[in-house]
Amino acid sequence: SSGINAEYGIESKDKPEMTVVWAGHEPEQFKSLFPWWEDMTETIPATETERRPTPLDEELKQFLQTEYTLQELQERPAGCDPLRLEQYLSDTEFEAIFSMTKKNFGNLQPWKQKKLKSAHGLF
What are the strands, taking DSSP E only, across 1-123? Predict the structure, then answer.
C-alpha cells in the first residue's frame, strides 16, 4: 500500500479507482456525470492524438521513474528534462553508449556533450 494510503489507514482494496481524463478527450461516461457539460474543442491542441483515460497509478509512474533505456529516451518520455536526457540512463548503459562515466561526461565542454548526445538521438 502506498504512503498516502498507509497515512490514512486505507487498505488497497478500499482505494477508489482513479483515472486521468485529458481535456478534449473526455469519455461519455465521464461527461454524463455533468448534465451541463459542453464540449470545448479549442482545448484540444492541433497536434494532440487520441488520448484515452489512463489509470492514475500508470500516469504517476512516468513522473517517478528515474531510469530509462536509450530507446525510451529517444521518444522523449513525459516528466524528463529534455536538456538532460542522458542523465536518465543507468550508469551501465551510459558507459556502454558514451564510453565514459557520467562524471567524466559532465566535465566535457558543452559543445562536445551536445555532439555526443546528438549522435545518439538525445538532443
Answer: 19-20, 54-55
- pLDDT score of 94: 96
Q: Cα 72 to chain center, whole Å?
A: 10
- Which string of b and e fits 35-71 if b means at least 16 CB within 10 Å? eeeeeeeeeeeeeeeeeeeeeeeeeeeeeeeeebebe
Alpha-carbon gap, residue 113 to 73, rounded angstroms = 16
| Residue ranges with strand state E in 5-105 | 19-20, 54-55
In the DSSP assignment, the letter for residue 91 is H
Dist. CA 123–CA 121, nearest whole Å:
6
| Position with higher pLDDT, 116 vs 5 | 116
Residue 5 has pLDDT above 70, yes or no: no
pTM for the complete prediction? 0.54
Q: Output the nine-digit C-alpha cell for 105.
A: 561526461
